[in-house]
Amino acid sequence: MKTRITELFGIEHPIIQGGMHYVGFAEMAAAVSNAGGLGIITGLTLGTPEKLADEIAKCKDMTDKPFGVNLTFLPTVNAPDYPGLVKAIIDGGVKAVETAGNNPAQVLPFFKDAGVKVIHKCTSVRHSLKAQSIGCDAVSVDGFECGGHPGEDDIPNMILLPRAADELEIPFVASGGMADGRSLVASLAMGAEGMNMGTRFIATKEAPVHENVKKAIVAASELDTRLVMRPLRNTERVMTNDAVEELLQIEKEKGADLEFEDIIEQVAGVYPRIMTEGDMDAGAWSCGMVAGLIDDIPTCKELIDRIMAEAKEIITQRLARFQGA
Ligand SMILES: Cc1cc2nc3c(=O)[nH]c(=O)nc-3n(C[C@H](O)[C@H](O)[C@H](O)COP(=O)(O)O)c2cc1C
Q: Are the C-beta atoms of 196 and 16 separated by less than 8 Å?
């Protein structure tokens, strides 16, 4: 399938794997890219420019297809070495970057000069327009359904995507709640040029996470996510578990007085314990409502081939039938 997104990134299918903390290692990115999508290494999980450079080199050994790196800008006191990470990306010859969090204006000139294409992840139309105005090549429009940080506007993709289509000139992919061929066709119908998936890609054979994480996603329904850190205006959609329910209880008790320190035990440093060790009650980890649509653990190639075949069937059979009627 050819879209403005496949053309922009030089990929076969309009499917991107969003950056994911402690999931987006070389194994994940290479598996998605080898299957014809755009795999993404998560820069901040590696943390230092040296480790990111090693991970990029490892990924290049595993695929000769294009892949990208996610750079998430966090409101943190001990900021990572962003200039060093940018240099590692450019020196590593990576040609695609997914930015997220804050406005990426400061790093854009470096990527532009190096011919790196930038797709910025946004949870609102106004942020998407801002990304377009500062020179981003594309936007990943992340609806309220998404795993991770949906922002504070709570607009689901059924509204957000057509709104983005009405306003944007640069191409965008639909993100949040995407799982199958139906998601892809619906995204295209609403004006997107492809889709971005997070949670769905964790439940694949190649995802370098503990089997417990994959099984938890398969077992979960669409009712099993919770929104945490809302009072801090840093809302995150996570899978429910004992630690998350405890966190929500603390939020309820503290009300408007909640501070980050009150919930630090449930959110800080929990990713390695969950993703690597499989301790599923260690704390809050991002997961989308789309878990309700996930009931198997295929390879990335099986998943992407299935999505493309299903999309084709919907477009040429199901939708064509309505046209004829
Ligand atoms: C476990 C997990 C970790 C994530 N970590 C990041 C991250 O570090 N940076 C980022 O920009 N997005 C992150 N995301 C968001 C994804 O890139 C993607 O936008 C989101 O998962 C899309 O929604 P979906 O899960 O419904 O597909 C994460 C998502 C998950 C599920």
A: yes
Question: In terms of domains, do 171 and 138 share one?
Answer: yes
Q: What is the per-residue pLDDT for 81?
A: 95
Which residue lies with its CA nearest to atom 28 of ligand 1?
Answer: 20
Residue 44, domain extent: 4-208+297-324
Pocket lining: 287 vs ligand 1, CB cutoff 6 Å:
yes
pLDDT digits (tens, 9 = 90+) for 53-108: 999 999 999 999 999 999 999 877 678 999 999 999 999 999 999 999 999 999 99
Q: Is 13 helix (H, G, I), strand (E, B) or coil?
A: coil
Same domain, 224 and 192: no
Q: Are strands 67-73 and 39-42 parallel, antiparallel or unpaired?
A: parallel
Q: What does DSSP say about strands 96-101 and 138-142: parallel, antiparallel, or unpaired? A: unpaired
CATH number of the domain within which 141 lies: 3.20.20.70
Tell me, yes or no, whether 42 and 164 share the same domain: yes
**What are the C-alpha distances in Å from 46 to residues 14, 150, 285?**
26, 23, 18
- d(CA 168, ligand 1 centre) in Å: 23
Q: In this structure, what are the phi and psi dihedrals at residue 225, rounded to the nearest 5 degrees?
A: -100, 160
Domain count, the chain: 2
Do 117 and 263 sit in the same domain of this protein? no
Mutation test of ligand 1: which of 28, 139, 146 has the most ligand atoms closer than 8 Å to its C-beta?
146
For the Cβ of 294 lying below 6 angstroms from any atom of ligand 1, the answer is no
Cα–Cα distance, 271 to 278 (Å, whole number): 10
CA distance 261 to 263: 5
The H or E element that residue 216 is part of is helix 211-219
Quick: pLDDT tens for 258-283.
999 999 999 999 999 999 999 999 99
Looking at the structure, tell me whether residues 51 and 100 fall in a common domain: yes
